[in-house]
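User: Can you help me understand a structure? I only have the sequence.
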Amino acid sequence: MFSLAVCLPISAQAARPLVTDDARLTNAHSCQLESWMRSYQGGQELWALPACNLGENFEITLGGGTYRNRDDHYQTEDWVSQFKTLFKPLDTNGWGVGFAVGRVMHPDIQPGPNQLGNTYFYVPASFSWHDDALIVHVNAGMLRDRQQARNKLNMGLGAEFQLGGPFKGVAEIFGDYTQSPFYQMGLRYSLLPDVFQIDGTIGQQVDGNRQTQWLSIGLRWTPK
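Assistant: Let's start by predicting it. Here is the structure, written out as tokens:
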């Protein structure tokens, strides 16, 4: 059984389809929805993560996902709650930085006291060049793994770049120091600019483990 959510518990908070988060929030006094399917050789994940910016600078994310193994019909769930704020919003041709803290729960995988979940925090920083034609995101953080009773450092480096018209490209590498990192690349297409997008990526672990290969498709709805 392989589930990216189990290996990377902060993999669900970025602007689709990036795993590496950005120094941006959803619109003030509004909500957004990000949802996606990630398919592996042996299974499939389905996720839905609604997020709301309750004021001008305080975003709450509450959501979850499910993983199903095709061979033995094994199924498990994951739940995420997160709070995020910005110290400096990302500006065009400038930079931004923020802070996020949250908890991810794997109740089927971590029974008993571990059902309380793993707590994490990270700092997202973003940098814009050429009128947002290229935006680079950097994450650094830590997760407290209750089951293994250890702290794990997490890192991420991602980029989104204009390809022309409504198309953007994305690429990133991310992971923690306990295992080989992951990478992915793909496309984002805006059906309604800044409101509704669809996307797709391919990725796998850097060590070439074919079991970790995935294909994802998703959507993001950010109403004004």
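Now, to help you interpret it: The chain is about 0% helix and 60% strand. Confidence is low (pLDDT under 50) at residues 1-12. Let me know which part you'd like to focus on.
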